[in-house]
Structures are given as C-alpha cells and as structure tokens.
Amino acid sequence: MSAKSDGRHRPDWGWAAPGRVNLMGEHTDYNDGWVLPFAINKRTVAAVRVRDDDRLRMWSQQSDDPEAPVETRVSTEPGDVSGWASYVAGVIWALRVAGHELPGLDLWVDSDVPLGAGLSSSAALECAVAVAIDDVLGLGLGTDRIAALARTAENDYAGAPTGVMDQMAAMHGRAGQALLLDTRTMVVQHQPCDLAAAGLVLLVVDTHAAHSLADGGGYAAVRRQCERATELLGAGALRDVGLEDLDRLPGLAGDGEVLRRRARHIVTDNARVHQAVAQLRARAWEDLGRAFSASHASLRDDFEVSCAELDVAVDSAVSAGALGARMTGGGFGGSAIALVRSADADAVAEACRAAFGAADWPEPTVFSVEPGPGAGRL
C-alpha cells in the first residue's frame, strides 16, 4: 500500500479492515443459513479528519487520480456518487439513517485487497471507514452494529444485494481462526484453522474474470429465485428446508426445476458448513478438500454462478495435487481457493497459470492467505 495521497494534509492511516475468503457456505447467508469464512491478511486502511462544514470528501489510492477527491455532502443520498466512493458515502448515509448526526469529513482509503476478486474488497472498505468514524466521533457502535450498518451501505446505497457474511468476517476475524456464523441468530463461533501447522496453505487463484455484484444482474437473479422457492415451499427461509421438501417445487411453478436446483444448493451447502467445521476440528484435511470440490460442483451445476475461468482454476488445481478447490464469493468471476499441501503449492499455482495460458486468458494471480485479525485501530 502506498503512503502518498494528498500527503501534505492527510492524517496518518489509523484504522484497517480485512478482506475475506469463505471456506464453505456460499449464498447461504441471505437464506438465513451458516457460513464459514475467515478474515485474510490483506486489508483496507483508512484515515479521517473532521471538517467544520457539511462537506464529505473522499480519496482513494486505487482511483484513476488519487489526488482528486470525490465530493458530496454529509447529507448524501443513494445515487449521489458511484463506483468505489458509493461504498464510503454509503457508510455515512447508513449512519445518518440510523440517527447519528455527523460533521463534515475528509476520508482517505488505500487497500491491498484485490478489487473484483470475490475477496470482499467492498466490505473491507466499508468496515475500515465505519470503524474510523466510530472511533473518531466516539459513537460506541460495537462490532455487530458496525457490520450491520456496513451491510446497509452496500445493499441500499451501493446497490449490491449481498448478505452479511462479508462484513461480519471483516469485523470478527481472528488470527489462526475461521468463524462459523449463524446468519439468523448472528452468533459467531470461532473455529481452529491453523493450516500452516498442518503443512497446508490456502491458495487464492484470482481469475481476473469480471466480477461485480452491484452492476451485474446474476447475483440479484439467484437471490430472487431463492426467495421464490422459499415462498412456494411456505418456509421461513431455505435454512428451514430439507432435501425431501424440494420435490414439491416442480409441480408448483413452471420454473420449478430451476428453483429446486437453487434450493438444493443452499440445503447441501449449509450441511457442508457443519461438515467442514467438524473436519477442521478433526484435522481431516482430505475430507475438507473433498467438501471444497463438492461445494464447487453444486455452485456450478445447481446454482449456476461459476464461469469458465473459475471451473478451469478448480480443475487445474485438483489435477495438480490440491486436496480440493472451489470458487469463493458471489461468483460470476472472481477467485477460486485451493487447499494445498505446502510442498505442492508451486506446482498447483503453475498448473493454473498454464491452463489459463492454454485458453488464451490473462494470467491469473495466485497467492496464499491465512486467517488474520478483524477490523480495528492500527
């Protein structure tokens, strides 16, 4: 991360929030289900300065012109700004909607969370900004409240209809641990995830395939299909549905077969989350690898949110010796993760690069991640 952004005036970087990978439980969060992410050792940092007027000025080291701020008022409303700045302004808007009076603010952000990689750079941005404002203004919001406000910013200001997993992972991360999150009760249980001690690494394969949950319609479409399946089954959420219930869907609607497959993924991935927790505790790594691959097949075939690049990354990693691999995040591009013995990491990375070269695609970026701490003051 660079330290220069209007350097004569910017305060020191004071706060940070991480990106995340999700080990298991994809698209289950907005269906009241379970997820198993961990915060990664890549993060967004923020600096903030209070102003004596009502202006909101925002700088990003990742923008086309890092010295030029995006400007609006603290009384911003959805639609006032777009792009990266909508996630920052969205936090301001969510705080105001929640009843907090805010002064004018200058905000700077910088990040090494890859953009568009399915590693939740947006939640890292929102949470870094939120913890900075909370600290500077003494709002006393607390971890879960900040996560909820950051999700509101993403959903209702930036326009990405995501669940709450990303923000909770950013806020609750711990070094060496994954977090089992029940998205209905919001109860977090930290789970052991010391891969290095087991001689393993988790590789991320950033495919560089286009990935935007706010701009693309695919994520919103599968979410609507889940809501429709829930409605037709008379359930509170797909979390409450069993496999035996799904055969009722084809007779209830013309698109019943599609809805049945969408619901089947949610039911089976919820089950895989609990299996993965048991596998982490038992250090049953080969079983965990197989669960990774089963989850990817479900996301590819039943949920249809994978893409050619993700499928090639997964298949190449497994063929080169990975214990298992799966897409991570919302899909439609982004990244795959592979559970790999440390001795095989270079070979797996090279196999993915070679496969992309053979397909005449841009070379993927392959790197390892480990569980890191959640958002807070530096």
Structure class? alpha+beta
- Low-pLDDT regions: 2-7
Overall radius of gyration: 20 Å
SS elements, strand count: 12
CATH topology: Ribosomal Protein S5, domain 2
What's the domain count? 1
- Average pLDDT rating: 94
The fraction of residues assigned to DSSP E strands is 15-25%
Our measurement of the CA-to-CA distance between the termini, rounded to an integer number of angstroms, reads 14 Å
Largest sheet: 8 strands, mixed
User: Tally the helices: what do you get?
Assistant: 9
Percentage of residues assigned to helices: 25-40%
In words, what does this structure look like?
The protein has one domain (1-193, 217-301, 371-378): Ribosomal Protein S5, domain 2 (2-Layer Sandwich), CATH 3.30.230.10. The chain has 378 residues and is of the alpha+beta class. The longest helix is centred in the last third of the chain and has 27 residues, at 256-282. The protein contains 9 helices and 12 strands.
At a glance:
By secondary structure, the protein is α+β, with helices and mostly antiparallel strands. The protein contains nine helices and twelve strands. It has a single domain (1-193, 217-301, 371-378), classed as Ribosomal Protein S5, domain 2.
Main features:
Ribosomal Protein S5, domain 2, 378 residues, disordered N terminus
Itemize the secondary structure elements and their pairings.
Blueprint: E1 15-24, E2 34-50, E3 55-60, E4 70-73, H1 84-97, E5 105-111, H2 121-137, H3 143-157, H4 165-172, E6 177-182, E7 187-192, E8 200-206, H5 218-233, H6 256-282, H7 285-301, H8 308-319, E9 324-328, E10 335-341, H9 345-358, E11 365-369, E12 376-377
Parallel strand pairs: 3-5
Antiparallel strand pairs: 1-2, 1-12, 2-5, 2-6, 3-4, 6-7, 8-10, 8-11, 9-10
